């Protein structure tokens, strides 16, 4: 949400000249990352699914996410197939396995992706970075 506010402020007129942001904010953004699943890191599917990234569609219009991807600094990448995220709705991408729904997607990994001691999540589309979210050590999740 803060990115939309920043883009709106950048577009405010200054001395009769409109300032246009160099890069418009993506409608789909990383909202929260839960990088340290609750309890011990046992690599059980329950523990793996306790690690997730929440994406939020800030627009009122549905967005097709085919070609969008999430990745970490190491390069582990989740790529969306045919999937539509409705307007003003979220989708959670879990690290482990499960049944994909309109609000929950599953990476199908058997090991953790997001580092508890610090990492960076990238939301990309066709090779271009749309949004990022970083964190350091401490805590278990971060709002982006």
Q: Examine the coordinates and then state which fold CATH places here, giving the name of the CATH topology.
A: Immunoglobulin-like
CATH class: Mainly Beta
Strand content: 35-45%
Class inferred from helices and paired strands: mainly beta
CATH superfamily: Lamin Tail domain
Gap between N and C termini, in Å?
Answer: 9 Å
Average pLDDT figure? 88
Instruction: Tell me which CATH architecture applies here.
Output: Sandwich
Low-confidence stretches: 4-22
The amount of helix comes to: under 10%
Global shape: globular
Summed up, the helix count is 2
The major pleated sheet works out as:
5 strands, mixed
**H and E order:** HEEEHEEEEEEEEEE
Number of strands: 13
| Major β-sheet strand ordering | 10-9-4-3-13
What is the count of distinct domains? 1
Rg from C-alpha positions? 16 Å
Keywords: Signal
Domain LTD: 19-137
InterPro entries: Lamin_tail_dom, Lamin_tail_dom_sf
Signal peptide: 1-24
């Amino acid at each position: 949400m803060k990115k939309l506010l920043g883009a709106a402020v950048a577009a405010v007129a200054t001395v009769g000249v409109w300032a246009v942001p160099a890069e418009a904010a993506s409608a789909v953004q990383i909202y929260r990352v839960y990088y340290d699943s609750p309890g011990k890191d046992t690599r059980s599917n329950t523990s793996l699914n306790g690690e997730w990234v929440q994406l939020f569609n800030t627009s009122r219009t549905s967005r097709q996410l085919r070609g969008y991807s999430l990745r970490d600094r190491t390069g582990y990448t989740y790529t969306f197939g045919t999937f539509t995220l409705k307007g003003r709705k979220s989708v959670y991408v879990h690290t482990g396995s499960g049944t994909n729904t309109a609000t929950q997607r599953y990476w199908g990994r058997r090991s953790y992706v997001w580092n508890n001691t610090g990492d960076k999540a990238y939301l990309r589309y066709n090779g271009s970075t749309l949004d990022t979210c970083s964190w350091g050590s401490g805590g278990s999740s971060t709002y982006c």
